[in-house]
Amino acid sequence: MKYDPIKRSLGKVFNKKPFLRKLFYWLLDLLLLRAWHIKKAIRIWKKNYKEGASILDAGSGFGQYSYYLSKQYKNWKILGVDVKPEQIEDCNNFFTKIGKSEKVKFEFADLTKFSKNQEYDLILSVDVMEHILEDVVVFKNFQQSLKKGGMVLISTPSDQGGSDVHDEDDHSFIDEHVRDGYNINEIEDKLKDAGFNKVEARYAYGAPGEISWKLSMKYPILLLNTSKLFFIILPVYYIIVYPISFILNYFDVNMKHKTGTGLIVKAYK
After folding, report:
1. How far apart are CA 197 and CA 194, in angstroms?
2. Can you give the residue range of the structural domain that contains 132?
3. What is the pTM of this model?
4. How many domains does the chain have?
5. Distance, CA of 259 to CA of 261 (rounded, Å)
6. Does residue 153 come out as left (phi exceeding 0), alpha (psi in the -120 to 50 range) or beta?
7. CATH number, position 230
8. I want to staple 257 with a disulfide (CB 3.0 to 4.6 A). Which of 8, 206, 231, 246 is the partner?
9. Are strands 76-82 and 262-268 parallel, antiparallel or unpaired?
10. pLDDT of residue 224
């Protein structure tokens, strides 16, 4: 499944005006279950950082999480990095237009080569590690870049059906993935081997979340890849489907899952 053509189509619409970009972020926050999980984790983490924080958005993409972080406390400094120059330029332009370029900046960076010396209080990695083959190198760079007491927050598919892969004959729903998902013990061990003192990993996208993902993301993307005409009826589709997805997302975020197709991982230095 190719996401990039869909991203480019959406970008042409939502990048025309800042208010459309903000609307796009709002829609992503509503639809993407991972955003629900990430924002809940950030709300817990931020209680100890009211006086200031230095944050790395590692794999910033459209910049939606950098935007969310920028609204928390005015004295937070955020750097977003990505390997796609067009997205870096696009994000810098947007944050300049909305007057936040002093506290939020974006740079090109390859995470396998990007390392700072104890510079960040929080490193955010949302649906990035499944795209990087040299994951251990990145984890070591994260550990080096964190301040003492800092946290890495990771969202990634699990090996329990992540990327919509459920057996050996299945292929990833997203072609860009280099791995279908992490075993929960595997990612914990890799992070500990990279030097993190404490690692907490839990399943996301349990039974309610998996159903919600199919309704709100998988089926619409499949239809959009079949025909762009589906853009016309997409609003009607979501008016019908979203109330169901909202309830399912709520339960997924507030339940403890014995298994799930996603992982939320916190690693502390």
Report:
1. 9
2. 4-268
3. 0.90
4. 1
5. 7
6. beta
7. 3.40.50.150
8. 206
9. unpaired
10. 79
